[in-house]
Amino acid sequence: MIYDVIIIGSGPSGLTAGIYSTRLGLHPLIIAGQTWGGQLMLTTDVENYPGYRKITGPELMQKMRDQAEGLGVEIVDADCTRLETKERPFHVAVGDKIFEGKTVIVATGADTRWLDVPNEGKLRGRGVSSCAPCDAFFFRGKPVAVVGGGDSAMEETQVIAKVSPDVVLIHRRDEFRAQPAMVAKVSALPQVKLLYNTRVVDVLGDTVLTGLLLETGTLSPKQQVGSLPELVAKFGGEQKSGTQWILPRSGVFVAIGLIPNTDRFPGLTLDAHGNIVRYEEKDGQGMLSYFTKTNIPGVFTAGDVHDGRYKQAITAAAFGCMAALDVARWLSETDTHT
Ligand code: NAP
């Protein structure tokens, strides 16, 4: 069996590509990954996906999956281990099993960016987490921190503040990157304190997290303190040397962005941020004819794995739609060679 298109990834982009491919009369296969659904499976409430006033991330993904399967898309719940693109049909390996596809859409999304400090690996799952909705339960009544300044950090903070009476949100600058409305919501929470111009030097603890080693640069006027010792006292910490100090914490949620999942696709051209490069094409009249092509003819891309800018569920879904339309066009132009 040779599939018209093998879609690698099952977030909003992959599932939408599957839905559109079947509606375009193609025969798609989705390699969903061992943990399917992407980043939205780790989110709680989604309030900005059109059509749903409020829905949880996992519910939204289940609806997309049900729709894809209802339309006849085949889904394999396993990880793609290799993509061979030297010849067509392309070979997509899942362990020892090889699936053949005339085209491929890489829609593998992006994963947590970790702090990359010495003790982080040892304490992951022992107080260091990247998912408040998954792990908040373990920190009921305990002091925690969230690291980051974007929308994810705001979301994580809101979630963990439901169970922790003492949350410190640590950002390396003194301006948040997140949407002002989200910053306003978090700032209004009485159990949340904001710590600016501070980076995490290490996470501390032998078997479980006990604290964070922090370094505070220039004091932000927003902290409303006159010196580092005053700041340390305000947050209940202990000064070490120079600008470094220890903040006692039982948990820390890392929300500093994402890394595109491209390690299984060595032949694909990546940009400086690790995102797959898209190559747009225009026809003779200057009209856009392809939007989601990669450097390999027949391999297309969709979603956060190529999009380092918008990174929304709705834009990922839209890219999935575009990739499916591009695949259908490309097959109609080239299928005689298959
Ligand atoms: P992001 O927007 O890239 O923000 C990452 C934050 O982490 C930035 O504030 C950055 O600081 C900080 N950071 C990066 N590396 C760091 C490091 N090594 N140490 C300390 N801090 C570091 O990532 P995101 O918040 O995960 O959001 C990703 C995308 O998803 C965004 O487009 C966002 O809008 C979207 N999103 C939307 C929603 C929603 O609408 N409900 C929810 C979550 C995410 P700087 O600011 O100094 O660069």
Structure characterization notes:
The model has no long low-confidence stretch (mean pLDDT 95). The chain is of the alpha/beta class and 338 residues long. The strands form 6 sheets. Strands 1, 2, 5, 6, 7, 8 and 22 form a 7-stranded mixed β-sheet that branches. It has a 5-stranded parallel β-sheet with strand order 10-18-11-12-13, covered by helices on one side. It has a 4-stranded antiparallel β-sheet with strand order 14-15-17-16, covered by helices on one side. Helix 1 (12-23) packs parallel to helix 2 (57-70) and helix 1 (12-23) crosses helix 8 (313-334). The protein has 2 domains: 2-112 and 258-334, FAD/NAD(P)-binding domain (3-Layer(bba) Sandwich); 120-254, FAD/NAD(P)-binding domain (3-Layer(bba) Sandwich). The chain has 8 helices and 22 strands. It is elongated, with a radius of gyration of 23 Å. A hairpin with a 6-residue loop joins strand 14 and strand 15. It binds NADP nicotinamide-adenine-dinucleotide phosphate (NAP). NADP nicotinamide-adenine-dinucleotide phosphate (NAP) binds at residues 48, 147-153, 155, 172-173, 177, 199, 255-258, 311. The site of NADP nicotinamide-adenine-dinucleotide phosphate has 18 residues, from helix 5.
